[in-house]
Amino acid sequence: MNARLRATLLVAPILLGATGCEWFTDMKRQPSLWTWEPVKDTLTPSRGNPQYSVPVTGMAVAGIQVSYNALPGTIDSMAGVPNPTPVSAASLANGRKYFQVNCAPCHGVKGMGDGAATQYGMPGINLTGDVTKNRTDGYIFGMIRNGRGLMPPYNRIEEPDRWDVVNYLRGLQGKIGQEVPTGPLAAPGVTGDKLYGFSRTAPTRPAPFINARGQIAGTGLHTQPAAAAPASPDTAHAAGGVRVMPAATTTDSAKREIKK
Length: 260
Known about the structure:
- The protein contains nine helices and two strands, in the order αααααααβαβα.
- By secondary structure, the protein is mostly helical.
- Among the domains are: about 65-180, Cytochrome c-like domain (Cytochrome Bc1 Complex, Chain D, domain 2), CATH 1.10.760.10; about 205-260, no CATH class.
- The chain has a two-stranded antiparallel ribbon.
- α4 crosses α7 (about 160-170) and α6 (about 135-145) crosses α7.
- The longest helix has 19 residues, at about 90-105.
C-alpha cells in the first residue's frame, strides 16, 4: 500500500465525521414533531391539532395512562372515571342500539349471558349479577374499551356512545328505576336508523388552513366564523355530548376575490 492511499484512508473518516454524515440511516432517526412543540424559534407557529379533531387515544382518559398496566389493572385504573352522560330516553335508546349489535351476541339481549355465541362454545357471562352490578360506570366503560380475556376491545364504539351502553346496561340491571326495552331494533338486514352511522367525534370534513394571523394563506383575507345556532338538548346529545364549533368561512367578498 503506497503512502498516498494510506493517507487517504486515514483522512477520510475524519472528513466524514466533520460533515456529520452517516453510513447507515433508519426510520427511527427521522424528524419528529409533537403537537404544540416549538418549531425552530418563537416566531414560527407551533404545530397544533387539526381543527375539529379529537385525541385518537380517547377523551375520557388517554390510552397511555392505562393501557400499559398489567391486566386486570388496565381496567381497574379506569374505575374512577365519572360517567358524564345522564340517563335519558335518548341515551337509553342509543345504548340499546349499540348493545344489541355488539354485546348481545355473547351476553344475550337481556344481558343474562345466553347470547347466540354461547351455543358455539363461548362462555356465558351474566351482566345482571351482583358482581357486575357493583362495578363502577368507569370500570364498565374501561372494560368495553380495553377488553379482557375472551372479550376483545370495543374501541369501535365511540366514547359518547359507550357511556350510553353503560346507562342501558344499568337499565338491564334494574338500577335506574325504570324498565328498558330489549331485543334487536329490527329484523336482520334492516339499516337506516336501526344501525349506528357516521363518526360523531372524529373529523368528518377537511379542516381549513388558517395561519397564525387568522388569514387564508396567500390571499391576505381574514376569515369570519359562521354564526352558530343555539343547540337543543337533542342536538347536543346527537353530537355525543361534544361541543361542535362552527367551521371558519369566508365572507362573500372574500370568496369573489379568491375566485379571481
